[in-house]
What does this fold into?
Amino acid sequence: MKYYLGLDIGSSSIKAALVEVVSGKSVGVVQQPEVEMGMFAQKKGWAEQDPNEWWQHVCRAIKQLKKQYDVSSAQIIGIGISYQMHGLVLVDKQGEPLRKSIIWCDSRAVEIGNAAFDEIGNEKCASQLLNSPANFTASKLKWVKENEPDIYKAAYKFMLPGDYIAYKFSNQISTTISGLSEGMFWDFKKDSVADFLLEYYGFDTEILPEIVETFGLQSSVDAKGAADSGLASGTPIFYRAGDQPNNALSLNVFHPGEVAATGGTSGVVYAVTNSLSGKESARVNNFAHVNYNKGNEPRIGKLLCVNGAGIQYRWLLNNLSVSSYDEMNALASKIPVGSDGVAVIPFGNGAERMLNNKEIGTRIVNMNLNSHDKGHICRAALEGIAFSFVYGVEILKSDGIRPKVIRAGNDNLFRSEIFAETIATLIGHEIEIYNTTGAIGAARAAHLHKGDFEAFGKAVIDNDHVMTFTPAKDKKPFLEAYHNWKNELEHTLTNK
It folds into this structure.
């Protein structure tokens, strides 16, 4: 039996998966470390991690996977890598990290990116980067240049987290167009590296890695990579992408109108389009999707984040004297659509980009202490989070997205019929639920170097499809509840 290896380089842990080459069936997934990885925060708002720690956990995960599933290195014939987006790794000419990685949730470069947006010009950034430079990788690199000039002077190349792991396997430094776009280094109008941003920030083009295709032979495991990881020397790396584009790939989302959704601690709506519109670039991030090809019809992934998603429901689990999400869902199911007027505004996890970075908190409104109970709160919370997803889809529609199908992972929120049916009904499209992970998707994507997207989609459907939620026949109560919730949200925004 032959297998592909998939790696998901997260900020909490490293996950490694094996899938069968022929069927695409998942064999198993392991996680290293078993407890959450730490972050170094020298100052408030900073977040750093040691890239070599990622590599150590990758090597441990591969060895655990081989042992647990009795697989030899010779049976693993290709590697796919997914990774935490927007991180910055700087290495010297020997390939050694010059400092800890400034990772995705580090906010030190916000002011640098905002100033670039204003000084370069909002219209130019929106039309060519499809985003504000904001707090992305390029702005983090500029922070190093300004605040750690000796480190910047010693830097040979910058890399994204997944690029660094590929380098540790192969001793070759490279990146992808999708990766450059997530760092704000890609000019979509010229379909080339964003020279105007490099010039504005004072970067030499030599600091950029070589560009390789997202699907294809990117590099191969060398002798040292083999000795460290336990893989065979010569094993090819066939795929690499950031976690959100990869999550969409894992759900078989490649074409305009296809939408991927996740409902974890925060929620994400990721919609694929062929439009280069940057109309909502202040509220929506735009990246080259995994199947973006120069010179062809573009494939852009529009990413909208809902910070106040699963964290809201988990807070209720911890504070309502209930034992499980299943109990909460059962309590909610006894309450009618609209929660008898109770509404939850779920944005209690910091500033919300889709609300123009306002921080409005969580609010429970219209509670009647004589007639409402915790079932109403559970239902209103599920509906409120669902409504925030629908509100986000409306923003995406204003930017040219025309959803045809929504595919979602089988996580806590999407396992709730109330949550999924509410979204399906208000958007007017089915929601397909799949039991997959980023590591499994990355492993399957290694097979796409052969270009067989149809077989990839079949593997996802055959192996991962759990259920499909359809819109309710009676849409009226859902529309009324959403209208009431939206009024409460707009009242809050107006008075904030």
Summary: The chain has a mean pLDDT of 95.
